[in-house]
């Protein structure tokens, strides 16, 4: 084989390998739907979170965050975040599993927060949930197990630590 032909074949092999390496992450992301982080070209990413447990594993929560369009011009925020998942009550007595979300969002130059919660009081069959929020800076989660009520108790809301699911940087 001549030197020119060897160089041409080596250059073609390198170009093919570089092209395959460039497209491999996108292909793997679209085929592996359960991957922990999937990034699309439109500025949207999905991230799995959980499973997070209440003390003594009495309740469990897990799900997915879909983040659309992070803006870092003034305050770093995501344009929209969709939070979806399941809450499980793992006790056989009359208690409920709670997933509490503290969502910090941008309002002008301020960063107030709002709380959302999901309750499941049926052992063995989880409660599904999904909601959206705009201009999101941070999302935190806490999982509790408490007696049936219309709202989580102050102990559940203010005791213990929050797990950070998303923080715009």
Explained architecture:
The chain has helices at residues 3-31, 154-158, and strands at 37-39, 44-53, 59-71, 77-89, 95-105, 113-120, 127-147, 163-167. With 169 residues, it is α+β, with helices and mostly antiparallel strands. It has two domains: 1-31; 36-167. A hairpin with a 5-residue loop joins β3 and β4. The longest helix has 29 residues, at 3-31. The protein is elongated and about 50 Å long.
In summary, what is this structure?
The chain is an alpha+beta fold.
Q: Main sheet, how many strands, which sense, barrel?
A: 8 strands, antiparallel
Q: Overall mean pLDDT score?
A: 78
Tell me roughly what share of residues is in helical segments. 10-25%
Rg of Cα set: 22 Å
Tally the beta strands.
Answer: 8
Alpha carbon gap, first and last residue? 54 Å
Tell me the structural class: alpha+beta
* Total of helices: 2
List the uncertain runs: 1-42
Shape: elongated
Tell me what portion of residues adopts beta-strand conformation. Answer: over 45%
């Amino acid at each position: 084989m001549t030197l020119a032909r060897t160089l041409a074949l080596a250059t073609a092999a390198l170009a093919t390998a570089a092209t395959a390496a460039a497209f491999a992450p996108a292909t793997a992301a679209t085929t592996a739907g359960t991957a922990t982080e999937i990034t699309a070209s439109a500025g949207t990413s999905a991230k799995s979170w959980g499973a997070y447990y209440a003390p003594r594993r009495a309740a469990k929560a897990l799900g997915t965050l879909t983040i659309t369009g992070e803006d870092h011009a003034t305050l770093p925020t995501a344009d929209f975040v969709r939070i979806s998942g399941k809450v499980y009550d793992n006790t056989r007595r009359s208690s409920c599993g709670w997933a509490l979300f503290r969502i910090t969002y941008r309002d002008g130059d301020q960063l107030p927060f709002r709380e959302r919660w999901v309750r499941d009081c049926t052992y063995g069959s989880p409660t599904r949930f999904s909601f959206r929020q705009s201009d999101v800076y941070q999302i935190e989660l806490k999982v509790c197990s408490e007696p049936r009520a219309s709202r989580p108790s102050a102990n559940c809301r203010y005791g213990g630590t929050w797990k950070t699911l998303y923080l715009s940087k």
